[in-house]
TrEMBL record, chain A:
Its main location: nucleus. It comes from Phascolomyces articulosus. Keywords: Nucleus, Repeat, tRNA processing, WD repeat. This is WD40-repeat-containing domain protein. GO terms for biological process: tRNA (guanine-N7)-methylation.
Automatic annotation (TrEMBL), chain B:
This is tRNA (guanine-N(7)-)-methyltransferase. S-adenosyl-L-methionine binds at residues 63, 86-87, 119-120, 139, 217-219. It catalyses: guanosine(46) in tRNA + S-adenosyl-L-methionine = N(7)-methylguanosine(46) in tRNA + S-adenosyl-L-homocysteine. It comes from Phascolomyces articulosus. Forms a complex with TRM82. Its EC number is 2.1.1.33. It is found in: Nucleus. The active site is at residue 142. Keywords: Methyltransferase, Nucleus, RNA-binding, S-adenosyl-L-methionine, Transferase, tRNA processing, tRNA-binding. Pfam families: Methyltransf_4.
Amino acid sequence: MSLRIPFTTVIHSPSKPEIVLANGKQFIVINTSTGEVVKPINENERKQEYSELYRIMTFNNDGSLLATTGDDKKINVYDTSDWSLKLSRVAHKRINSFQFNHASTEIIIADKFGDVYAHPNKNQEDQKEAEKLEPIVGHVSMVTDMTLSKDEKFIVTSDRDEHIRVSRYPNGYNIETFCLGHKDVVTYIQLLPWNEGLLISAGGDNTVRVWDFLKGKEIQSLNIKEYIQPYMAKATDANSEEPMVRKLAIDASKNLIAVVFAKTNAVVLLEWTSDNTLTYKSTLETESTVLDATFDLQNRLWVTLAPTEEKGDLLAIFEEKNGKYEHLSSKEQHVKQVNSIETGLVEKMPDLYTIFGLRKLLDLPDFVQTPPDKARNKNKKRKVEETK
Amino acid sequence: MSEEAKLPQKRYYRQRAHANPFSDHQLDYPVKPEEMDWTKHYPQYYPAKEGQEQKKVEFADIGCGYGGLLISMAKAFPDNLMLGMEIRTKVEDYVYERIKALRVQEPGHYQNVSIMRMNAMKFLPNFFEKGQLTKMFFLFPDPHFKQRKHKARIISPTLLAEYAYALRIGGILYTITDVKDLHEWMVKHLDDHPLFQRLSDEECEKDPAVPHVREATEEGKKVARNQGDKYLACYRRIEDPFYKQ
């Protein structure tokens, strides 16, 4: 029995009413105004051995190019006018975050090993060229996300050890400051589009924080646990007991932020008020667990889902009505249309929420033998204490 | 002599030389330097006495082992606070007990030195503010001989950026090892890093910390007993040359 592969990642074009949906070994493009499929799944390759080849995707600033990367370490760049493949490069390690620079001459990548590289936006001449690239910034632990500052004079990187580091760019060896405050892995960082001197961050510690990142100063920390707790799936191990933010989807025109969590039946909406504070707005419930979300150009929120039933919806659309966001009915033309799209098929569904593994609660060391005459108390692990 | 003042015996605190810096060792660390409680380490200095500026840790011995350098530097630099960082539990316990005993045996002394169990590779920015340190010591570090272990070496391009962040401009970074290959590795990476400039041999000899670096550690004494070579390299933290164009 073949199962439909859900849309594990979704991203909206900055310029056209189009979203790109990752679907295992392929991706699908839908027009968000009409609900029509712009680029469908390749019919011949529907049945797949699951592999996330489009785990991460990014548009360049004018939306003319889309870069994708996934399990195969390849960086593919597509021309968004016809979705043809323009070029392909190979990275050293699997990439966790990447972006085009403003001029679209480079693709800056941050990998699982903790290094940041600037790949030229052109075909690799040969294997040697790839090996010559030197890291610009290096973290000891895995880099989870990355962003350049608006003026591209700084680069901000987040890691598994709760650090947000601000380094000069391209002289990344010169660290400007750190934004320290998070108490668990930081999974997502982004500049606030309405004030690009501010950085927003989130991860595993139940907070969404705002920083004046050049000063390393925390402006606000908003605890969001109570808003999502009732919608969490049952924990399968210590790592999945607490909520884990996967992404923040931002709507610049309405100053809204949708907080996407791993394995929850809801998305939390926050808004940036006129007194420059992040506040809770509402929680949007979904019929099955959420994978990803993005706003379209008409301020609708598109949420991708991981249904447990064979015929469950893969997409939910939320629209604003009288100041509140409401779930469009599955029976609505638009919603029905996008949910009947042909997707890739797989025999066995893999674990779609490996992000919980970024926590370190399962890596406790063995008991250490103490020497005689010892009366001192052992240091307790900070994290275990906090989650109890 | 009281229980507290008895010096600990090394044989109860032996632990294997290699520890994996990438695994998470049940460490305690503050979220940021401002939240660190230093009163337990330097009770005579924290909080600062009225009218006096708060002294902060300025010398850091990364991978301080059995504390030889710190104990010998404590009296030579009585006005500076210094901290040893050691990831191995038993070894850190030994140094802790040693400092505790010395503070009782010699009142007024050794109040400026302390030790912490810490992974300096991961959590240095949690403890030290930008430009806080004036000296950083890397004495006889673990060579991690295998190629695949090179990222675990305490001197690497990744880590040098963090050391440059913690070290004040003009501050000195000291390295010494008896493993020529490791010395060449460290020198190459430090030479390549734009924020570090090597001190000449003359400048090294004039530096008052250098004799301690050479002689004071247990590892250093072992090397001398075996008549091995010691390779010293010292670097000054300089301004970023990127902007001098």
